[in-house]
């Protein structure tokens, strides 16, 4: 079995370490975190490995996962390259969505890769059960890509090939869908609050319709899923909503107009006529008074 060392076994590193150990794909060996207490806690969670107080005190391994925070990855790779002889046949990878494998280039001739699981590792205990079925965007040197394709398959994940030059655009795609969806829900809650509907009631009201909307999008796609006043070309309702939001909170009105313009573009790919689209664009482009 291949050995795996982890530098930065936090939420993601602990989850992957435990799953790979349980699947028998990697034998988890040395774990180094910022603090030794945290490394001990990671060893306990994974159920294997040994805590190391520094990179130089880690045992050498076939594979290295550098899963500290994004800003620390390059420095950790440099420390690794100055403490361990790099060799062909070994692999090193990180799991950042924002960075490509190039950030590890100091480790060549070790085969390097980036492998970004499209999953939210908020709670490792939950991720243990829910990671399977997720996709992992993978790019880098061929040996690392091949090994990681097998490694992720062993824990029920499918890999998606991506080029280093498209990594940032790829990551923006998941940021828009996931982080912006959260921000949209917050904007929606602010609008409900302005209407006197409290946070809990608003969340209960939103839950079924938001979940249904997400399901519709996943099965039908955005064009067929778009409903509401803009898709219907209901100029009067859009004008009234924009006006009400402007009186309640100009910032909310600003976001409503900006997102409304993107919504008009989407609706144009459906039933919305050119003429009504032009009127909606005019209405949403003007600051409301
Ligand atoms: N969380 C997610 O949902 C998610 C999803 C996809 C990809 N990722 C990627 O996965 C990576 C890790 O994210 P995470 O959320 O697991 O982070 P995290 O929970 O904050 O864990 C980071 C770990 O790195 C350790 N660390 C920080 N600086 C270090 C250093 N200089 N040397 C050694 N260890 C160091 C920390 O040690 P201490 O515990 O001692 O502070 C901690 O255990 C990032 O590249 C991130 O972009 C995360």
UniProtKB/TrEMBL annotation:
<protein>
    <submittedName>
        <fullName>Rossmann-like and DUF2520 domain-containing protein</fullName>
    </submittedName>
</protein>
<feature type="domain" description="DUF2520">
    <location>
        <begin position="136"/>
        <end position="261"/>
    </location>
</feature>
<dbReference type="InterPro" id="IPR018931">
    <property type="entry name" value="DUF2520"/>
</dbReference>
<dbReference type="Pfam" id="PF10728">
    <property type="entry name" value="DUF2520"/>
</dbReference>
<dbReference type="InterPro" id="IPR008927">
    <property type="entry name" value="6-PGluconate_DH-like_C_sf"/>
</dbReference>
<keyword id="KW-0560">Oxidoreductase</keyword>
<dbReference type="InterPro" id="IPR037108">
    <property type="entry name" value="TM1727-like_C_sf"/>
</dbReference>
<dbReference type="InterPro" id="IPR036291">
    <property type="entry name" value="NAD(P)-bd_dom_sf"/>
</dbReference>
<dbReference type="Pfam" id="PF10727">
    <property type="entry name" value="Rossmann-like"/>
</dbReference>
<dbReference type="InterPro" id="IPR019665">
    <property type="entry name" value="OxRdtase/DH_put_Rossmann_dom"/>
</dbReference>
<feature type="domain" description="Putative oxidoreductase/dehydrogenase Rossmann-like">
    <location>
        <begin position="5"/>
        <end position="108"/>
    </location>
</feature>
């Amino acid at each position: 079995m291949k050995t795996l060392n982890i530098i930065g076994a936090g939420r993601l590193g602990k989850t992957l370490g435990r799953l790979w150990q349980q699947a028998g794909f990697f034998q988890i060996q040395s774990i180094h975190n910022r603090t030794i207490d945290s490394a001990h806690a990671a060893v306990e969670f994974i159920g294997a490995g040994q805590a190391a107080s520094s990179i130089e005190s880690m045992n050498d391994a076939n594979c290295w996962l550098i899963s500290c925070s994004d800003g620390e990855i390059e420095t950790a790779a440099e420390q690794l390259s100055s403490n361990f002889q790099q060799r062909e046949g070994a692999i090193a990878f990180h799991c950042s969505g924002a960075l490509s494998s190039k950030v590890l280039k100091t480790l060549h001739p070790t085969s390097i890769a980036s492998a970004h699981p499209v999953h939210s590792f908020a709670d490792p205990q939950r991720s243990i059960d829910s990671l399977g079925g997720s996709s992992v965007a993978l790019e880098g040197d061929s040996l690392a890509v091949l090994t990681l394709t097998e490694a992720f398959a062993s824990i029920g994940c499918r890999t998606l090939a991506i080029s280093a030059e498209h990594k940032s655009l790829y990551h923006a795609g998941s940021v828009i869908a996931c982080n912006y969806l959260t921000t949209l829900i917050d904007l929606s809650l602010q609008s409900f609050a302005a209407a006197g509907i409290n946070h809990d009631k608003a969340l209960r009201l939103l839950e079924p319709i938001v979940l249904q909307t997400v399901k519709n999008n996943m099965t039908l796609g955005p064009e067929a899923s778009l409903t509401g006043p803009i898709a219907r070309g209901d100029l009067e309702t859009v004008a009234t909503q924009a006006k009400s939001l402007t009186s309640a909170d100009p910032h909310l009105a600003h976001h409503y107009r900006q997102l409304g313009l993107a919504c008009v573009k989407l609706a144009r790919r459906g039933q919305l006529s050119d003429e009504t689209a032009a009127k909606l664009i005019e209405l949403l482009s003007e600051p409301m008074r």
